[in-house]
Amino acid sequence: MQWSFTGEIERFTGLGGWYHVDVPDDIGDEFEHDGFIPIIAEVGVSRWKTSVMPKGDGSRFVAIKAAVRKANDLDEGDPVTVTIRRG
Question: Which InterPro entries match (predicted)?
């Protein structure tokens, strides 16, 4: 199964804060698990293996690594469409 969603690229505060996009609750519910869930993510011209990760407050996110941001000319605050499938 595959899901697509659009969100804003955010950055966790603190040293080395990750850039990420929140997974909407209706999709996040598909990943009911306390840990990291392996996925394949796609953004624009990029595809990579990563995980849906818990934030600690019950919500989930997908990290958007630097190579993906650079290849797609993305930065904090930009809207982005993410497609994920279990990996």
Answer: AF2212/PG0164-like_sf, DUF1905
